[in-house]
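User: Please predict the structure of the protein below. I'd like the answer in structure-token form so I can feed it into my own downstream comparison script.

Assistant: Understood. Taking the following sequence of 163 residues as input:
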Amino acid sequence: MAVRHRVIKADPAAVWEVLADGHRYAEWVVGTGASRPKQGQWPQKDASITYEIRLGPLTLANETVVRHCREGSLLELEIIAGFLGTARFSIELREWGEHCLVIADEHPLRGPGAALHNVGLEALIQLRHRSMLARLARCCEDGPGGRREPSGGQGHAGRARHA
């Protein structure tokens, strides 16, 4: 099971605001194209969004469905990746002083991804999560709810990035 965590320098409410916006899914989830609502009201249970993933010359239409939501603190998703199968992805938010501890947990459920799950695949998921959590941190720390200090009056492009 690939579990990774990161402290994000923003209030948990600011992090939740990003997670709760289905249109912003592609901003923080590595490898996804623009996301759009498919069914229901994201992130309520059974709501879904669709998006594309490019794997070299292939473009896959994927769907993510909310399986469990505890508003403000937990979002459990089922990622439906066509012929590759499905995966469970859970993201939990905890207050951590004045910041937010984010815990990401992913594992394959069905299909070839589940059948072929091994240490190598686990390592790839860990690398993907590292990048994903860095992207989520940028969305939250640079946003209006984040607590990052401006660096010398520079705009968004001039701010420091922390991976």
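That's the full token string. The longest strand covers residues 58-70.
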